[in-house]
Amino acid sequence: MVWRDLFRLALGSITSHKQRSLLTALGLIIGIAAVVILTSIGRGVHGFVLGEFTQFGTHLLAVYPGKTTTFGLSGATISTVRPLTAADAESLQSVESVLAAMPLVQGNARIEAGGKQRRSNVFGVGPALPQVWRIGVDSGRFLPEEGADNARPFAVLGSKVRQELFGEASPLGQRIRIGSDRFRVVGVMRSKGQMLGFDLDDTVFIPSARAMEMFDRQGLMEIDVLYRGDASAERVEQAVKQRLLARHGAEDFTIVTQNQMLEKMDSVLSVLTLAVAALGGISLLVGSVGILTIMTIAVSERVAEIGLLRAIGAERGTVFRLFLAEAVLLSLAGGSGGVGLGVGVVKLVAVLLPALPVQLAWNYIGLAFAVSLAIGAAAGVAPAVKAARLKPLDALRAE
Question: What's the distance, Cα to Cα, between the start and end of the chain in Å?
Answer without folding.
Answer: 25
